[in-house]
Amino acid sequence: MQLSPDQERIRATAREFARREIAPHAAHWDRDGATPRSLYDRMADVGLMGMMVDPAWGGSGADFVSYALAIEEISAADGGISNVMAANNSPVAAAIEQLGTEQQKTDYLTKLTSGAWLGCIHLTEPHTGSDASAITTRAVRDGDEYVINGQKAFITAGSTADLAMIIAVTDPDAGKRGISAFITPTDNPGYRVISKENKLGHRTNDTCQVAFDDLRIPATDLLGEEGRGLGIALGNLSLGRIAVAAQATGGARAALAAAHAYARDRVTFGKPIIEHQAIAFDLADMATQVEAARQLYLHAAQMRDLGLECAREASMAKLFASEMAERVASKAIQIHGGYGFLNDYPVEKIYRDVRVYQIYEGTSEVQKIMISRNLDTSEG
Amino acid sequence: MKVVVCVKQIPDPADPGALDPETRTLKRDVKLILDESDSYGVEMALQLVDAAGEGEVILVSMAPNGERSGLATALAMGAASAILISDPELVGSDALTTAKLLATAVKDQGADLIIAGSESSDGYTGVVPEQIAGVLDLPSVTAAKSIEVDGSSIKVQRQTDGGYDDVTCPLPAVVSVTAGVVEPRYPSFKGIMAAKNKPVEEKSAADLGFDASQVGWAGAGQEIIEVTDAPKRQAGEVIEDDGEAFTKIVAYLENMKVI
């Protein structure tokens, strides 16, 4: 796919930012299990935190292809940070822009795009995942307020975020249509972080369990209409899946680059291992797979920019890219030999970071359900 | 406050291309980017305009082939507009011709201050800013590490081998900025999207009142007669450690007057 000059320039800027501001520190932040908050301020200055939001609300007004390219660049430097960026951009900022009131946009959206606040989305619960409609967190109307009780799990940036978008049941008898979306600052007294998870990868961000203890939200902070919460949470699912495909492509690309550099440097039997055909062919395979994943996500992103239905293409991109990333990262470790198993080399961390892409925003199995239900019968 | 910044678009140093064997100059028919050493001047100009609370940054650049991608980077950083001197006749122009053309383009802008990088990363002549000052008969301050506006004058810290000089200079003036003295901002995405709508005024040599004999190879007062490779680095001295190697290292460093 041919990129426009704007898309090229956005990618170049994101790459430069990621190489200078994130990559040199990623291993250290991974070991610390935390990323300095100031990084997200600098990301917001560039425009990474509200990329597709209208400039009137402090966004960059970029297209979705540009956003996906930027996600790949940030992810190539660190997967966990790219996920905080993704959560902030979409679903949270995108949903508030699409459905928020003027007041909500003034109060919240501008803070998300400026980097003053980080956003997080509370959909998943300990007993739910792909079956998102099975949530039980309850929001009960009480005068001018809603009172929310329940527990959420796997919340990216759950303890560092400043704004929470919460999906809760308002009408238990209405099934999927009884679920609503709310927004509230996380310093609301009813918002309690139970724990920060200890994870295989993405250790640069905080994935949390959060409880709502009589969390009171003014009715004015209902997002959209009552009963539309599931649609709000899942309405941007294709965006999320394309973003994960871009994350996976970024991680795989970084693993490829590390393996390529190592293969040129490491000498066995009198020559750099890249001159051994077994290694050279592996690198060729890896590069081909990375490029194929990139083209899949760019194709889906471009369809989305053109206003075309892209659920199937988003699922294909997410499925292929996420599974490819694990294969490529594993092969990158193999090329490093024993050193690849040590955290002195970047591929160890990349291997841990890419694993989650086959799980969140719909597991590989869910993607296959999506794709198989949308098989094109005209191609027979 | 109106600040004009002279910027050069150069072949990407990461992919430096080659010398033309006939002219012994760098081939420039590749994609050009903003010279990184000019990004410091752009940043400094943007900071001065921010501090003044009003005004704008105007770019002036010269390129033989109408190249704008380097200008787009500086516009995305926040410059308001650009003047691009572009003309096939300009190929082969030497530093003085370049300075005359840039000075002519700058003259009518009503600039309070003209900033340029101390030297470009490709040609490295390091004389164009001073020549512009000479042509325009303006004061010239070189190697600035900081600039502070004080009414109708500027206070400049001028980098020297041993530290810096404090210099005060009336405005308008031409100041050359040393690379690395400020942290150039990343172009914001909003800036990138906006840059394509910012005006870039293209001018030919004739538009600026120069005829073909005054510019390019014809007008050049200098000629590159030979290009040779830089001398290869000599092998370093290896000191085998017999337990007393440190004395030799200390003696070596003392001899270098490092310690």
Write a structural description.
- The complex is a heterodimer of chains A (380) and B (259).
- Chain A is α+β, with helices and mostly antiparallel strands and 380 residues long.
- Chain A has three domains: 5-117, Acyl-CoA dehydrogenase/oxidase, N-terminal domain (Butyryl-Coa Dehydrogenase, subunit A, domain 1); 120-227, Butyryl-CoA Dehydrogenase, subunit A, domain 2 (Beta Barrel); 236-373, Butyryl-CoA Dehydrogenase, subunit A, domain 3 (Up-down Bundle).
- Chain A is 52% helix and 16% strand.
- Chain A contains eleven helices and ten strands.
- Chain A has helices spanning 5-32, 37-46, 64-77, 79-99, 102-114, 229-235, 237-265, 277-305, 311-336, 346-354, 364-373; strands spanning 119-122, 138-142, 145-156, 163-169, 179-185, 191-196, 207-218, 222-223, 267-268, 271-272.
- In chain A, the strands form three sheets. In chain A, strands 1-4-5-8 form a four-stranded mixed beta sheet.
- In chain A, strand 2 (138-142) and strand 3 form a beta hairpin.
- In chain A, helix 3 (64-77) runs antiparallel to helix 4 (79-99) and helix 4 (79-99) runs antiparallel to helix 7 (237-265).
- Chain A is globular.
- Chain B has a single domain, classed as HUPs (Rossmann fold), CATH 3.40.50.
- With 259 residues, chain B is an alpha/beta fold.
- Chain B has helices at residues 36-52, 69-77, 95-107, 128-136, 189-195, 216-219, 245-255; strands at residues 2-6, 9-11, 32-34, 56-63, 81-86, 113-117, 140-150, 153-159, 164-170, 173-177, 200-203.
- Chain B has a nine-stranded mixed beta sheet with strand order 9-8-7-10-6-1-4-5-11, sandwiched between helices. A two-stranded antiparallel sheet of chain B has the order 2-3.
- Classes of the chains: A alpha+beta (380), B alpha/beta (259).
- Chains A and B meet through helix 1 of A and helix 2 and helix 5 of B.
